[in-house]
Amino acid sequence: MKISAVIITYNEERNISRCLNSIKKVADEIIVVDSFSNDNTILICESFNAEIYQRKFDGYGDQKNYGIEHAAHNYILSLDADEALSHQLQLSILELRQQATNKAAYQFNRRNHIDKKWVNYGVWYPDCKMRLWDKNKGQWNLAFVHEKVDLQPGTKPMLLKGDLFHFTAATFYQLRATNEKYATLGALQLFKNGKNYSFIDTSLRPLFAFFKAYFIKLGFLDGWMGIKLAHENARNTHLKYYRLKSIIKEAKNVNA
């Protein structure tokens, strides 16, 4: 198995070295698609001998698919700049490379680091992601947010040992700002898909989001962190549907 690592960047000088250090032993090539960073991102990527393409950002999935188009090898390892392979996950991938035959896709448990702490429960762990696959078996979809690889029917990813580290947010303020952006994008995606809203969406869904994160997914075992994250999960759910409500009303006024 030969692997092409594909990463998209924009002003990631604080994260990119950690990411590239974690993949340099498992990837045969590193492809970076950069959205015209104005910090030291490009210089750092060049120091890792990455193949760099600069392109105007046109959505997460589209940007990642563009990188895959330039990949020399069939197997794609896709990471975000604020992610990194754990040592155990590196070993798991290195072991795959020695096998005569391989599965079409592999997924990892992602462990999130928020406000200087690792999250061990709730909806934040194991947070499983499919990030290593044969590019002939699937590609990134074009969702506005939370994009994923659409695999061919019948293709089931195999779970590898080891965690994918995600340095999600340095502070809760940063996490909230990111969630607000994602809530807006999520609302736009729902509107594009023709979804409407109801009392259940704006009121009951947020309550269930808290209940799921804190009780069903055992978020309470993370202590005060678990309470804060469950509350943030509920807030994000409410905000997404509240903004969908605003988008639908605005569209009706325009068409009136």
Provide tags for this entry.
Spore Coat Polysaccharide Biosynthesis Protein SpsA, Chain A; alpha/beta; 11 strands; 2 domains; single chain; nine-stranded mixed sheet; 256 residues; two-stranded antiparallel sheet
CATH topology grouping of the largest domain: Spore Coat Polysaccharide Biosynthesis Protein SpsA, Chain A
**What number is the mean pLDDT?**
96
Give the overall form.
globular
What's the architecture of the largest domain, going by CATH? Alpha-Beta Complex
Question: Can you describe what's shown?
Answer:
The model has no long low-confidence stretch (mean pLDDT 96). Helix 5 (172-192) runs parallel beside helix 7 (224-255) and helix 6 packs antiparallel against helix 7. The strands form two sheets. Strands 1, 2, 3, 4, 5, 6, 7, 8 and 11 form a nine-stranded mixed β-sheet that branches. This protein folds into two domains: 3-169, Spore Coat Polysaccharide Biosynthesis Protein SpsA, Chain A (Alpha-Beta Complex); 172-255. The chain has seven helices and eleven strands. It has helices at 16-23, 41-47, 60-69, 87-97, 172-192, 199-216, 224-255; strands spanning 3-9, 29-34, 51-54, 75-80, 83-85, 105-114, 117-118, 129-134, 138-140, 149-151, 158-169.
